[in-house]
Amino acid sequence: MKQFRSGNYQDQGYHKSFQPSMISRNWILDDMNIIQLLSRADRELGRLDMYSEYIPNIDLYIRLHVAKEATLSSKIEGTQTKMEDALLDEANIPLDKRDDWEEVQNYILAMEWSIKELKKIPFSSRLICEAHERLMQGVRGERKYPGSFRESQNWIGGSSINNATFVPPNFTSLNELMSDLDNFINNENIILPDLIKIALYHYQFETIHPFLDGNGRIGRLLIPLYLINRGILKKPVLYLSDFFEKNRALYYDNLTLVRENNDLSRWLRFFLEGIIETSKKGINTFDNILKLKKNTEAIIQDMGTRTGRAQKVINSLYEHPYVKAEDVRNITNLSLPASYTLITELEKLDILFEISGGKRNRLYVFKNYLQLFSE
Prior knowledge:
By secondary structure, the chain is mainly alpha-helical. It has 2 domains: 7-285, Fido-like domain (Fic-like fold); 303-373, Winged helix-like DNA-binding domain superfamily/Winged helix DNA-binding domain (Arc Repressor Mutant, subunit A), CATH 1.10.10.10. The chain has 15 helices and 5 strands. The chain has helices at residues 32-54, 59-76, 83-86, 98-117, 125-136, 174-186, 194-208, 215-229, 241-246, 248-261, 264-299, 307-319, 325-332, 336-348, 367-370; strands at residues 7-11, 16-20, 322-323, 353-354, 364-365. Strands 3-5-4 form a 3-stranded antiparallel β-sheet. A two-stranded antiparallel sheet has the order 1-2. Helix 2 packs parallel to helix 12 and helix 4 (98-117) runs parallel beside helix 8 (215-229). It is globular. The protein starts with 6 loop residues before the first strand and ends in a 5-residue tail after the last helix.
């Protein structure tokens, strides 16, 4: 790692672009501080993954993890959608906020699609391009060649390429660079711990910046995908966008230090610290979900004959924490008046809270559950 050279700047006439070194080669990990952090990160990630096996119906709770990641990853790129809004139906989103909302929905779609496709498509440029197509479909970047590598120069920061913070490599070298990235991540003869490998991959991907738009979101999405692909995680329960968003300046600074000073160690330490902190937060969230589940089940036992139907509603709320009377009717097969009666009882027990303020089509939220993902 100490001998690492990130690349060099190439004169393109009116600007200089950064040409990264190839990374599909043998590496030697010789920094004991990184090795120590790696041990802690592996341990915390293993504890987090354990919940995938021991929490019944864990898929009910995964959706909010994905929604939180989608919201925060998109927020880094400038969208203003809150997680609470991301979970609402389009009809409940004001017109002036729908563009941001749609970008978050596309992120969720791209993540869910990619996880399913990993069973058929290898972790590769092909998967990345198809995920990117879904990420950009019908939103503000839809004219920037969704699913295709760029065929023109892009840049990061600044009002033009002449005062840009960073200019990625020329598009003519993209196929070679992405092929090298594919070889690096899939070559079993390159012996590196998986967390180091995906940290290097993320840095290189963001440096290459192969698309005209959406590089940051795709680059962050690829982290949990790789961990699932390698069997390190069984479910998508680790998302680093929360850590990156809270430490946004450090995130960009550490990426820049690799390019400018060949300082790969600082980036790897930052990445591993993110794994440790995010894993601990994920573990705490699952612990709190289990406590809430236990307490809620105890509370509804006093509902008598309505307990069974109340449990059905609550199970649905773990996957989608907003509900209307019509939803309750569909879940329980009760009449609409009986559905309102059940909702009223759940309100009295502080399980549901009305948030729409209207007399018709009232919207209710499982607030105590939603708050676990906002802490």
